[in-house]
Amino acid sequence: MKKSSSAPEVAAAVVVAAPIKKVPVKKAVAKKAPRKIALKDSKKVPLAMTAKKIHTRDTGIKRNPLGHLLMEKMLREAGFHGEVSTAKELLDKYSTDESIFSIRPQVVIRPRHKSDVEVVVKTIGRETKRFSSLSLTPRAAGTGLGGGSLTDSIVVDMMHLNKMGDVTIKKDKAVFTCEPGLMWRDMEKELKKHDLYLPPYTASKDICTIGGAIGNNSAGPDSLRYGHCADWVESLDVVLKDGKSYTIKPLTLKEFQALIKQKHEHARIAQSIYELIVKNEVEIKRNKPKTKKNSSGYALWNVIPEGVVAFKKGKGVFDLTRIITGSQGTIGIVTNITMRALPIQKNTSLLMVPIFDLAEAADTIVKSLKYNPINVEIFDALTFDLALSNPDFFKQRLSGLMYYRVMLSMYTTYHVRFARKIPEFTVLITLDEETTQKKPAVEIAKEISTKSSKARVVTNQVEAEMYWQIRRASYTLSKFQDRNKRPAAFLEDMTVPPENLSKFFMQIKKLFKEFNVTAAVHGHGGNGHFHFYPLLDFTNKTTPALVEKMADAFFDTAVKFKGDICGEHNDGIIRTPYLHKMFSKKMLEIFKETEHLFDPDDIFNPGKKVNPRFDIRHNIRHTN
Fold it and tell me: How large is the greatest C-alpha to C-alpha distance in the chain, in angstroms?
């Protein structure tokens, strides 16, 4: 039974928070505000409190505070060694992430190792029968943009699970293991020692964790060629609803048949998901997004990629990691990750194309895709203008002479190369050495040029650094437009087929004018994937209604151009209520059944992906 049927990421990286402060032992008293009480070794609780119910406007469920009040006592008795707190300042900190929402949790816990996570899941799985409002929401750094790490129950901060294992290189395959709380930047340093990198790196790699990236099925610039995080997963250790850990990986037919003969949760779930796919394969294939990038829903279409008939004949694999990666912690908690890595790209060539006529953007990008580029990145005129207007911003990102060289390159490009006319889009195309050996980069540049947009090869490393600095800074630069407003993350992840990019963006510009908002735009042009964050004032009482109206209009536009509403940031609170725009009613029911098979008591991050329960208007933050 689901605990809530009322309608409306996991986050990316570890919050650098002050150590959790223990709350002094206090005897529970019914008159005390329940959210401020942290019980230690209390064995008796006033009967008046057991009957007390609090109706919450945001979730529409009856909240019994007793389960949360008893949390530490129950966990300690079960063998939990991590941190538990209901300290007000900490709950306030965990009430927000990088999204537009604010939801206050009741308890924050920080497991110290995998066995702590097992204890937590087993305990909550048992106690949810008594206290139906109990649930677990994994969180790393809180850099997610969709509100996936926010909850009104228990936050499970994975910050202490941050170890990295050995990097193993055998023949042409490099593999590494790590825990979910490991910072991406720390993993990257270790891989660089072996001349390796993880291709689906995100623009937020300096502040996000591997676990958050897995929870969201994140992707970034090089994902044009190399796909999402899910494409690089070898195996995942996951704590399922029974509180036990299972290693989940792609299985051959023989391995699958051996698994489902066993008597445990992994076997039951594998058998059930297989039967669900067999029964609904046609509908699942019909609903597979047409764009290359998508992190909405549960990717059932990738579990048996070769198809059921082929799998029964021994071809292909059965791969549950494909729906765990991107599940935002809604079906289990990941405690260890094994992924492949790739040699760092060397001797690459960068092409730059200034697009002065938006109608030519799609043509240029589609032409470039013939050469299998590593990435095709874009940023808009507003981003370039903000960079020109805020040179001091780059002092924080560039040191010494490099800062002055990059700034000189930026102003020279504007005044001389662009003749003081900023292009609608600046397109950056990275080609590998194999491609340019077959056809020189100069010739490729000529071929992808249009009448008013002339591509050129960037040979000066300072100029190249200048373009990449502006591209990576687009989101942060947008804040300089109005310091009394906040770049709002709720429209930022729409994707359309590249051939529709020009028409799509022209329609987007019209919507900007219609809603009287401005937004700096950047994204992954090769995937037709835009990121833009309209500046809104969250202290204004009209903003919640505006957010809903804009989301409805913008999401409709993406679907109109055969795109989707979520390329890599996942559903969270903001997109879960709008999945009907992408998927059929039947497919949404299949998603619900998938979640229910893993988590029948809804203890894992409820309200995300399926069964939306956090009202968008009522849970929007009120600060900028």
Answer: 81
Let me know whether 316 and 392 are in one domain.
Answer: no
Nearest residue to 428 (alpha-carbon basis) of 523, 569, 531:
523
Shared domain for 331 and 356, answered yes or no, is no
Contact of 322 with 255, CB cutoff 8 Å: no
pLDDT tens digits, 572-608 = 999 999 999 999 999 999 999 999 999 999 999 999 9
Task: Tell me the Ramachandran region of residue 396: left when phi exceeds 0, alpha when psi lies from -120 to 50, beta otherwise.
Answer: alpha
Domain count, the chain: 2
Helical (H) or strand (E) element with 334: strand 333-343
Same domain, 258 and 374: no
What does the pLDDT look like over 363-410, one tens digit per residue?
999 999 999 999 999 999 999 999 999 999 999 899 999 999 999 999
> Which residue range(s) make up the domain with 522?
349-569
Q: Which of 213, 156, 166, 159 is nearest to 194 (CA)?
A: 166
pLDDT digits (tens, 9 = 90+) for 216-254: 999 999 999 999 999 999 999 999 999 999 999 999 999
Kind and range of the H or E run holding 233:
strand 233-239
pTM for the whole structure = 0.87
Nearest Cα residue to 4 out of 594, 580, 602: 602
Among 554, 565, 551, 544, smallest CA distance to 615 is for 544
Cβ-contact 214, 12 below 8 angstroms: no
> Buried b / exposed e across 297-306, counting CB within 10 Å, b at 16+?
bbbbbbbbee
Residue at 559: amino acid letter: V
